[in-house]
UniProtKB/TrEMBL annotation:
This is Response regulator transcription factor. The keyword Lyase does not apply. It holds the Pfam family Response_reg. Coiled coil: none annotated. Residues 150-215 form the HTH luxR-type domain. InterPro entries: CheY-like_superfamily (IPR011006), NreC/VraR/RcsB-like_REC (IPR058245), Sig_transdc_resp-reg_C-effctor (IPR016032), Sig_transdc_resp-reg_receiver (IPR001789), Tscrpt_reg_LuxR_C (IPR000792), WalR-like (IPR039420). PANTHER family: TRANSCRIPTIONAL REGULATORY PROTEIN NARL-RELATED, TWO-COMPONENT RESPONSE REGULATOR. Residues 4-121 form the Response regulatory domain. The modification 4-aspartylphosphate is found at residue 55. Keywords: DNA-binding, Phosphoprotein, Transcription, Transcription regulation.
Amino acid sequence: MPVTVLLVDDEPLVRAGLRAVLEAQPDIEVVGEGADGAAVIPLVRRLRPDVVAMDVRMPLLDGIEATRALLRTVDDPPRILVVTTFENDEYVYEALRAGADGFLLKRARPAEIVHAVRLIAEGESLLFPASVRQLAAEYGDTGGNRAARAVLERAQLTERESEVLRLMARGLSNAEIAARLVVGTETVKSHVSAVLAKLGARDRTQAVIAAYESGFVAPG
């Protein structure tokens, strides 16, 4: 089954460019388009895409609020890929904190766009971990977020789960973590699932943001 994608951006040329790149792939299908974040929820409910590629800055409802609304109101929501002009953008970090799964630069090369969509759909790796660390260092309340610290304390991660979370924050995939820890990939998947469940995180990105915000992992 192809990965289905909904494109949401107020610039028609951006949507057309993304559609052309993605539809050239046999395993990706663009199922719809929207011109503003306000259109996201009805489109998602009707089209049920696997991934929403959404601009972070839009005139009526931006990508941050659209992300919050989508995750709050839609059962089994799709993965959210924020599309942005600037990499070092506080809006991007706020979108990640709100629940977006990763971000993509509008100037990205076609191969990078395709890779981002596939990676977000799979959910087994952190997209652009170095950039997420940079955003957390610049805009995050790293170590000072009481709510995030409380979540980590209540989680009571085991020593191995803590190690897995640190490796996740560095951007390692399940296979790479397995090689580093000399265990099987299925064992790593079990640890990752346990970490996400204990933190109440829907995916790796949210777990890593919580790790940074709590001071459990330093973003530098």
